[in-house]
Amino acid sequence: MQDMASLAKPEFETATRLDPQDAEAYNALGFSEDALGNESAAIEDYQKALRICEQKGMNFDPPWINLSAYYNRHDEPDLAIKYAQKAIEINPKSDLAFYQLAKAYRFRGQWDQAAEALRSAIAVKPSSAPYYYVLSEIYRKLGKPKESEVAIDTFRKLEHDSELLESQIREARRLSVVGVDAPKDLVPGSSERKN
User: Fold this and answer.
1) pLDDT above 80 for 59
2) Coil, strand, or helix at residue 22?
3) Is the confidence at residue 125, as pLDDT, over 60?
4) Considering the domain 1-60, what is its CATH architecture?
5) DSSP of 77-131, one letter per residue?
């Protein structure tokens, strides 16, 4: 990740110089800085992205999500909650914002709120295995063993399905490299795909 961030950072710096009002470029630069461990620069870039979004009235939630994630990683749940809630206000269908909100509530030991935030994330993106894993843990903390078991079973199924799909994609790529057409049942999205 750091190698990619170090390659991307100069590109995002150029983008912000070319257009100092590009919120997406500042957000991406902040993400690169964050990945490289330049925390104060990351926060500054995320904050610039936030200000631009507010000035332009943009419905662009990633800077708020990234700040929420940053504060979750640094054990500051109050700030994580603040930024996650703002992201949800901007985009009520942001599974990532709900996930960050759940992590902050989990850190505070507010298990009911964490479970509700995770259920909201799952409602938006039911295919995200990690959400079910964390929800299983939270249900255990709430003393709900049956719900915990259902959540962990769903996690395992999604992980298995994901591994199977990745294996099929790797095989299709391998076959295409050697000049063999991949069987239709290995090509994701193929209309002739076998079930």
Assistant:
1) yes
2) coil
3) yes
4) Alpha Horseshoe (1.25)
5) HHHHHHHHHHHHHH-TT-HHHHHHHHHHHHHHT-HHHHHHHHHHHHHH-TT-HHH
